[in-house]
Automatic annotation (TrEMBL):
The keyword Oxidoreductase does not apply. Keywords: Signal. Residues 1-17 form the signal peptide. Residues 20-118 form the Cyanovirin-N domain. This is Cyanovirin-N.
Amino acid sequence: MKSSIFLLSTLSTFVLGDSGFFQSCNNLDISDDHYLYAHCRQNDGGQRLTVEDLNLCIANANGQLVAREGGNYAFSCSHCYISGSAIMKCDCQSASGKRTTSIDLNPFIGNSDGYMWCFGHRSAPKACCSYSSACCNTDTCVSSLENCLYNCPQDQPGAVAGCIAACYTIC
């Protein structure tokens, strides 16, 4: 019984301890209405440029954005952007038509050593693999991509997505 309580206590600390990514991530940007880009602090104090597919984290519930694993909201929402701190706004389809809605990303997206995560889905800087199988098979390309992503401007909000798109062309 004691070990079960300890395990639950430890698991709760792990799950909740890393949430609230906004305190350790900056330069948030949305691309293609569902990719969240950010520079997130690593445990060693460095920064990592990371991307999380928010379709894995958010659903459109009749025009209202809600945190839900595998929600695939971007199929019925468009014109998404970050407004203020960690608030994402989108135009989403509802039964009565399109409406503008928002969601605070901070309660369900975390940062673990520079990687954003939600519902157990962890982002990674080697996102190139989802775009080109050649990247996965070529260490040089992956290394070049990581260097490119690392050197994207951290002080120019809105420029992150463009820089990342340019980096992917190296593959």
